[in-house]
Amino acid sequence: MTLSRAWVRWTVGWLGAAALVTGPAFAGKSEASSAPVVTVAFGGDMIGPVHPMNRAGDPAFAGVAELFRKADVGFVNQENAVFDLNRFSGYPAAENGGGYPLRYAGHAAELKDMGATLVSLANNHPTDWGSEGLAATLRNLAAAGVVAGGAAMSDAAARGPVFQLTPKGAVALVATASTFPPTAVAGPAIERHAMMSQPRPGISPLHVRKVRVVPPPLYKVVLEAAGPTALRDGPDMRVGDQVFRQGDSLGSLWEMKPSDRDALLDAVAEARKRAGLVLFSIHAHETAGEDEEPAVPYHPVFLQHANEAASPNDPRPASFQVELFHAAIDHGASAVARHGPHIISGIEIYKGKPIFYGLGSLFLDFGGARVLDTPSGETIHVPDIWYESFVPVVEYQGERVRSIRLYPVLIEDKAGPRSGSPSLARGERARTILGRLQALSAPFGTKIRINGDIGIVELE
């Protein structure tokens, strides 16, 4: 299939799905008592597994899969490209050299079998194998009945919501990423010489930048040291990838590109008109931390940040995330799910809706290795906390959240037939993960009660 035909198929498919959903599918507040109970299970990053996901042959994984299979909707962040390399006619991308999250075409059916029915492709890996790799992944997921959002064959389709139609109504997903290679961004068709190009496949981006705030005396020192490499950027100064701004005290802040932010919020509002529940998903490695990883020789800093931000194991969210997530709920989102850092973060209940600031990973298969050399030349050291995660299951009735249950998860960190696969944590290990969630959620005013091996978020 050429990209042109693929684009037509995906555009028609998306428009068809949108046309089926003409209004909110679940009851409003006045009808909440008679509305059906809808459950959504949330999982974090899918990286691997290298081996098949076999519920029958892996009872430990089957326990986790059952959380998704019993839910009306199962959401995960799908970082794997999904196609058979021996049938692939494309090429590995220059930025990542053909990233390691690659699964065979049959993996799409395994996702559907485990109950992962609604996935985000907006992250830093969908174009590891170029536009052709993304197109192949989209085709294979669709063929298996998995609804994918956040990446598509055009910018309009990537930006827009996708819908999973359930017997109880429609659930929408609006997905984006703030951590991504520059060439991963979807784009529109372009006219040249009275002819139109195809749109550019890619992700729905949220461009962000860190601004370093410095007092006037230090600002002057930076300006003098930078010399001719300093470029004016409105009231700011740019030196390479770094942006400096004068302020009263030393610090930093994050800014979102206004047009990206507004497009995402418009998509949430549009989705809310068509679906009873709207999930907002973002792949964001950015944290509140400041500790930069060592530079990779001959590798631009902006490309390094496309895969790993500063302080990747800091559980505190970057400031723009709090602002954006609140705005998403204000525009109609029923839940916000952040993924990217392979660690868990806190939970906030904002206007009665959950914000998961860090879902961690669901699958994380590095074959037991703890030191990884990426295709782009970075070295990653994998800590123990990357292998501890959780699956929240949220019950809705109408617009109201009835309950939020937290299931702690352990990911197999050793090489072998279960490498990278999840299992439900029990006993002391479960209490350790839930205790960490309690501590991380406390700054947001969220209380979590531990009942055996399960955490229960206390709702007002």
Automatic annotation (TrEMBL):
This is Capsule synthesis protein CapA domain-containing protein. Belongs to the CapA family. SUPFAM superfamilies: Metallo-dependent phosphatases. Transmembrane segments: none annotated. InterPro entries: Capsule_synth_CapA, CW_Biosynth-Accessory, Metallo-depent_PP-like. Residues 39-366 form the Capsule synthesis protein CapA domain. It comes from the Bacteria. It comes from Rhizorhabdus wittichii (strain DSM 6014 / CCUG 31198 / JCM 15750 / NBRC 105917 / EY 4224 / RW1) (Sphingomonas wittichii). SMART domains: PGA_cap. PANTHER family: PGA BIOSYNTHESIS PROTEIN CAPA (PTHR33393:SF13), POLYGLUTAMINE SYNTHESIS ACCESSORY PROTEIN RV0574C-RELATED (PTHR33393).
